[in-house]
């Protein structure tokens, strides 16, 4: 972990603000009523389910809090949160199941 | 705009959106806490949350900044996380594309998971809605959510520094994201996309500048798109 320079932070905020608006505006604002190519929509459908797990996987296997050592409470909590979300289709149920598992195991394994 | 009908449809959107305060408020609080712990001041946290208005991308950017990632890679990775809103924009276009440009611009800013999901279902089930009525419904869905998001971020930022390490908030981000991913895994191609992305992310963890995230995300997207084509072809042949 390092300090984030304020100038870097402002560049990232500005870049993300314009970039995010651009992504939201590109079709509804610029394309309007014209149809879009199938291959593009097909790839866009899988962005969230690809990039979010890619971001999380290393944080689950090598958590920062333990200095990168694989950790039973954190891996179990991750598995429970994912499974609960998959079966219940409910984000809140999944969050509370995962958090409950994490705190329960951290307490039991001390 | 035909005000009487649009008005009741606006309130229907409001009622449909209101339960999602239960998702937006904890997620916003978590971002406020996380950003404050990362060293951002209140001004930075609130500007970030109000202008970007996309929790997952905001978390990604902060996480990568804390890992000393070059600014350009931070931006590219966080925008890649946000690519799904481009898909939402594309999905809403057939329904809202005929509205005035200023309305479409405002709608673009408010295009988030919930407003997209609620609106597309409503527009599909009620094809007779006029364009102004659809816009009214769309804005109705985000009316309870946006203030809840800003306020929750503010509260998280104010409380942030007072939360002790024993709460293990380091792991709040993985749990929250995994909880969001679960319900998204609706079809086999979605599962394949996620698995390919996870395996690639772990294999590319040593690639400099956290570029592994972009590589893994791209691999997962391509795997999902490919699986969809293969499965569709197979179901035609049988």
From TrEMBL, chain A:
Domain of life: Bacteria
Keywords: Membrane, Transmembrane, Transmembrane helix
Provenance organism: Ruegeria aquimaris
Protein's UniProt name: AzlD domain-containing protein
Pfam family, one: AzlD
Organism phylogeny: Bacteria, Pseudomonadati, Pseudomonadota, Alphaproteobacteria, Rhodobacterales
Transmembrane region(s): 12-32, 44-65, 91-109
UniProtKB/TrEMBL annotation, chain B:
Compartments in which it is found: Cell membrane
Subcellular location, principal: membrane
Highest taxon, organism lineage: Bacteria
Bilayer topology: Multi-pass membrane protein
Pfam families with a match to the protein in the record: AzlC
Residues annotated as transmembrane: 20-40, 47-66, 72-93, 135-155, 167-185, 191-216
Keyword line: Cell membrane, Membrane, Transmembrane, Transmembrane helix, Transport
InterPro entries: Brnchd-chn_aa_trnsp_permease
Entry annotated with the keyword S-adenosyl-L-methionine: no
UniProt family annotation: Belongs to the AzlC family.
The protein, known as: AzlC family ABC transporter permease
Source taxonomy: Bacteria, Pseudomonadati, Pseudomonadota, Alphaproteobacteria, Rhodobacterales
């Amino acid at each position: 972990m390092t300090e984030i320079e304020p100038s870097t932070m402002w560049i990232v905020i500005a870049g993300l603000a314009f970039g995010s608006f651009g992504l939201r505006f590109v079709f509804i604002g610029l394309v309007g009523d014209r149809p879009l190519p199938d291959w593009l929509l097909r790839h866009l459908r899988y962005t969230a389910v690809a990039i979010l797990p890619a971001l999380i996987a290393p944080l689950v296997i090598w958590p920062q809090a333990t200095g990168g050592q694989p950790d039973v409470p954190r891996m179990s909590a991750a598995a429970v949160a994912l499974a609960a979300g998959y079966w219940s289709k409910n984000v809140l149920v999944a969050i509370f199941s995962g958090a409950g598992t994490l705190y329960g195991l951290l307490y039991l394994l001390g | 705009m035909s005000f009487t009908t649009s008005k009741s449809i606006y309130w229907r959107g409001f009622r449909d959106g209101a339960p999602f305060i239960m998702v937006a408020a904890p997620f916003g609080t978590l971002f406020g806490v996380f950003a404050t712990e990362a060293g951002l001041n209140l001004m930075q946290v609130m500007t970030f949350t109000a202008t970007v208005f996309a929790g997952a991308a905001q978390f990604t950017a902060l996480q990568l900044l804390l890992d000393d990632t070059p600014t350009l890679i931070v931006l590219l990775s966080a925008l890649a996380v946000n690519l799904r809103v481009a898909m939402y924009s594309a999905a809403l276009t057939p329904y809202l594309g005929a509205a005035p440009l200023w309305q479409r611009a405002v709608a673009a800013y408010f295009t988030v998971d919930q407003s997209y999901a609620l609106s597309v279902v409503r527009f599909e089930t009620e094809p007779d809605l006029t364009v102004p009525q659809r816009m009214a419904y769309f804005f109705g869905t985000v009316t309870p959510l946006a203030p809840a998001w800003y306020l929750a971020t503010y509260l998280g930022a104010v409380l942030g520094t007072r939360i002790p390490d024993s709460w293990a908030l380091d792991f709040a981000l993985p749990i929250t994201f995994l909880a969001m991913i679960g319900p998204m895994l609706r079809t086999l191609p979605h599962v394949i996309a996620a698995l390919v992305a996870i395996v690639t992310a772990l294999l590319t963890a040593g690639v400099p500048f956290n570029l592994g995230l972009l590589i893994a995300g791209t691999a997962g997207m391509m795997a999902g798109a490919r699986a969809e084509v293969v499965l569709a072809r197979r179901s035609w042949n049988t």
